[in-house]
Amino acid sequence: MLDKIFGRDIALYIKAHRALITVAIILSALSALFVVVPAYLLQPLVDEGMKSSIEAVEWRIPWIDYTFPFSVKRAELTLLKGITPNQLLISLAAIAFLSVLLKSITLYLSKLAGAAFSNRAVRRLRIDLAQKFISLPLTFYHKRKSGELIARATADLTVMQNTISTITIGFVENPLTLIVFIAYLLLMNYKLTLLVFIVVPIIVGLVGLFGRKVKKHSTRVQDATAEVTSSYQEIISLLKIIKGFLRERHESDVFKGLAHNLYKKVMHWNRWELGVGPMMDSTMFLVIPGIFIIGKIYFNHSLGEMVSMLYALARAYIPVKNLAKININLRTLQGATARVFDIMHTVPDIQDRAGALTMPKLSDGVEFSHVNFSYKPGELVLRDISFNVKAGQMVAIVGSTGAGKSTLLDLIPRFYDVSSGSIQIDGMDIRDATLSSLRGQIAIVSQESLLFHDTIANNINYDGGRYSEEQIQSAAVSAQAHEFITAFPDGYETVVGDRGMLLSGGQRQRIAIARALLKDPAILILDEPASALDPESEHLIQKAMENLVGRRTIFIVSHRLNTIKRADRIYVLENGAIVESGTHDELMTKNGRYRNLYDIQFER
Ligand SMILES: Nc1ncnc2c1ncn2[C@@H]1O[C@H](COP(=O)(O)OP(=O)(O)O)[C@@H](O)[C@H]1O
Ligand SMILES: [Mg+2]
Question: In degrees rounded to 5, what are phi and psi of residue 204?
Answer without folding.
Answer: -60, -45
